[in-house]
Amino acid sequence: MCSKHFVNTDYKWNLQHEILGYTNKRCRQLNEDAVPTKNLPKQPQSCTGSVSRAERSKQRDKAKRVKELLNSKDYLRSASASLIIIGNGVLSNNISDGVGKCTTELSPSNALIPNSSDVGVNTEVDERDQTIWDLKARNEFLEEENKSILKQFSPTQLRKLREPYKRFNWSVQDVQKAIVNILLIHELIGYF
User: Fold this and answer.
1) Which residues pair with 93 in a beta bridge?
2) What does the alpha-carbon distance between residue 111 and residue 92 come to, in Å, rounded to a whole number?
3) How far apart are CA 188 and CA 192, in angstroms?
4) Which residue stretches does the UniProt record annotate as biased composition, category Polar residues (predicted)?
5) What's phi and psi for 167, nearest 5 deg?
């Protein structure tokens, strides 16, 4: 189960595991009524709750009227006759419909609006890159440490460290390296 989306209280409590100090996250079981609540995408709040039904119906009626006007041939002829292009893509449209004059200006927008999914992906990629960088640094450190250990101990000593309950035949070289290591340790302890 994923601890990225569930809170600790969503998992079943196991007294035996707690007493024994066993905290394996792969064995945890979710409660039957558990719902993922962490790291969920936020839902946009709709504004329909604040607008009354009558206002929404008026808006729909206005939209229908606009469509009808745009589809009528007379409106298209009068609108195309009064269309004026002002440099760099800015439009000015002077329309007289008998009530008064109306001026509309449009300009292209060069601003890019990022999608909400793109923003989440970028942060996830950044976190993965940071994790990869940390793991590479840790790997380099462990390789250097491994090389220094291989220089200090003989092959028999390394096998003894890996398998402490087995018996090994010690060579003269192994005993000499062990004595040198012990003397170095005593000198370092006396130095501090």
Assistant:
1) 83, 104
2) 21
3) 6
4) 40-51
5) -100, 140
